[in-house]
Amino acid sequence: MERRSFIRQAGLAAAGLFSLRLEALASPKPPYSGVLLPVHNIPANKQLDPAWVRSLYQRTKPTTYTKSKNELRYIGMPAGGLHAGTVYLGGDGRLWLWSIYNDEREGIEPKTVLWNDGVADRQIRNRDGASYVEPAIAANRRVLDQGFAVMVETGGKTMIAELREEDWEEVSFEATYPVATVRYRHRKFPLEATLRGGGIFIPLDADNSGLPATVFDISIKNISAQPVRAAVAGWLENGARKISAKKGEGEKWNHVAKGNGYTRVSSKMDKTAEFSRPDDGTTCIAYIGEGATANANAHPWPVTADFFTTQADSATAEADAKLVASIAGPKKQLAPGAVVEAQFILTWHFNHPLKKTSKLKDAAEGYLYASRFKNAASVADYLAEQFTRLWGQTLRWHKTYYDSTLPHWFLERALLNIGTLATANTYRFANGRFWGWEGVNACEGTCTHVWQYAQAMGRIFPSLESDTRQRTDLGNAMQDDGGIIFRAEYEHRPAIDGQAGTILRIYREHQMSASDAFLRRNWTQIKKAVNFMLAQDKNGDGMTDTPMENTLDAVWEGEIAWIVGLCIAAARAAQYMAEEVEDTAFAARCRDYVEKGSANMSKHLFNGEYFIHRPDAVQGRKKLGSYNTCHIDQVYGQSWAFQVGLGRLWDKEQTLSALRSLWKYNFTMDVGPYIKTHIGGRPYALEGEGGMIMNTNPHNEEKPFGENVTWQLGYFHECMSGFEHQVASHMMAEGMTDEALVLTRAIHDRYHAAKRNPYNEIECSDHYARAMASYGTFITACGFEYHGPKGDLRFAPAFGKQQFRAPFTAAEGWGTFSQQSGKGGWRCSVSLGYGALQLRTLRLKAAASAVTATVGGRKIPASLDRNGEEVTIRFPQTLQLKEGETLKIQLA
């Protein structure tokens, strides 16, 4: 299963790869299999403006893109429910792409483009970065007609403006997630419009967050000096068999119905053909509120006043014709400065699993949303009836998340990659099983060595992760010897990094549980998985040395720091889990492995600057490897340790030296000079853009990558954002906050809307799963640790601790933590915005000797322990915090 084979096809395996740039390479010119190897050319001095670096810490405002700066055409925010296909909210507020029709093609816009790598034009497929080089444009991918318009009656005139870029002088898009805000303004139009759009997104509620629906919350404000009458209308084309319908195959049908406090128009197709197609299904548009005017057959464009007055309860059209339904809210009188709101819902239902998923028995019955709802109309009915609660909770999370002292741009980049779950990159089958690609329709099987980087889903929708650990990794993917097949049904072997990463995820999923039931129920299988991992250390020195598949699509020989370290972290997690289930003998075995491995890793795999890959004693450097080069993941195990509270695993100073080396040798504010000499990689960062190169040869050693140069070498010359995010999160945890923010900002700027879609971080195809590692940097910025079964919660902000506020998620609830220092000591609070929270201990980084705790003005018994720079607040009785309650802490 070679995931990204274009490099092989491009001839990277040939020795001639390096000869292409012979005349351009600087001295010295070390020999490499008869050709010349490029010289390392990343400057050690990054020449960063100190004022710019300081600005990265500022709170500022949401990133906003505008029409006047030509920044709207690429924007595509995933705006539907989780695992319900891809529907994009565009920069001007209209929906586009509509990848809800179970498309078998790879990526959001399958194509091949030409890219000049500095030597020659190369053909780049979707999985190789085509969407990075030439992003999809909203205007080219509308698919279904859909939109909104506002009408105003003033001074005897009727004026109408559609909520689209062409009708307004200025349109601005506030690029947050899961709700984006679009604003419209024109000097000659008496109304100002604001649209908030997105899917239902409620952390911890995976089911309701998986509705195939987009919500539009529109407000219009009278900005004139005179009273006006105004209304909002929306429309949606019948989407049944939109892709495949031909004349004579049946009739499209729209029908109006009214519910309790809402009006909807449902759309389907009465087919003459019996066989099923991927685009067989239904769509629906609904208006929340009374007094709406619905039209099953809206008038053609441009929009006229008839949209707001014409009523037709049903309509039909030929199978290949366009049939559009509209709903208009009632006209309302608006005084100067007054505001009126209108809410609409768009839903869809296309229950046809891809042929590519035919190996999965779980896929045969279709998708989970289809097992809950029979058609799009029933989705609309459910959402309309629960609208106040579900949309209200979505907006509450949105406010909770962004109401933080952390920089707004940083909060955006940390969270928005979880939008991957609301694209065609993931599915949830009828029996509840979660399943994902690596990137949209590319590389099957919820691949363990890719998905283990993704930190977002485990914190925001932990039930999906825990079920995947139990059902897939410890279930149908587990071999008799404990090896976890890294693509489940789509492979036959484990991957060593995926194995270790899955053990670490199991520990995270245990921590994100309310009790230890998950751990105890799965302990036998967990232990098998750990035993398999420990057995890959053939010589008993605590350092994995069995050749196995890794995420760089190769089998490397020897002792490889990033894999050794990842296994050490996994063994520490296994030790802690064993201690919790009172398996003392196994805990001791894991502890022994960690101690030996950590000591030997520091002794044998640190070269004085950074951690390396020690060749196999027999094979030597015959096969491809990183050897004495500077590899991006070299201390990844310690990075993982900070995500789940494992503490320090090996020498701190060596670890910091490794991170500083990555900064010195691998990070550059302009990758152009590097990728023009070190060719063969894919274009995930281009000239003029900053990033961290995967693997560099800073000392220009001979034959740095082994005797046999294979196609996977191309990966070494790339910038893959998922790997960069994990380094940024580690730097943040280690106090390298400047470097962490600069690296994260480099990624953020690569995805500026003037260049490409801010919501689509690309690796092997679109919306790549590994990019969800970005949430890990948020975790370490907060110094967040949590252990649900123990009722333990910790915050230790990486910066801005004197006045800090940030959101958090726990096993059963989410809310806001805040702290500020003053003359009387520290004041802290834990406010719960949703669900419940059980607390026995609260750990904070603060100097104090006394504590006072209250909830709702009622004093709560609490004691204080000091441990170095931290204090632990203990509650003798488990504190049960409920939604809407706030725990207040005074430290003196």
Automatic annotation (TrEMBL):
Molecular-function GO term, any one: hydrolase activity
The keyword Calcium is assigned to this record: no
InterPro entries (UniProt xref): 6-hairpin_glycosidase_sf, 6hp_glycosidase-like_sf, GH116_catalytic, GH116_N, Non-lysos_glucosylceramidase
Assigned keywords, A-Z: Hydrolase
SUPFAM superfamilies with a match to the protein in the record: Six-hairpin glycosidases
Boundaries of every Glycosyl-hydrolase family 116 catalytic region domain copy: 497-775
Pfam families for the chain: DUF608, Glyco_hydr_116N
Residues of the Glycosyl-hydrolase family 116 N-terminal domain: 76-389
Protein's UniProt keywords contain Ribosomal protein: no
Protein name per its UniProtKB record: GH116 family glycosyl hydrolase
Organism: Chitinophaga pollutisoli
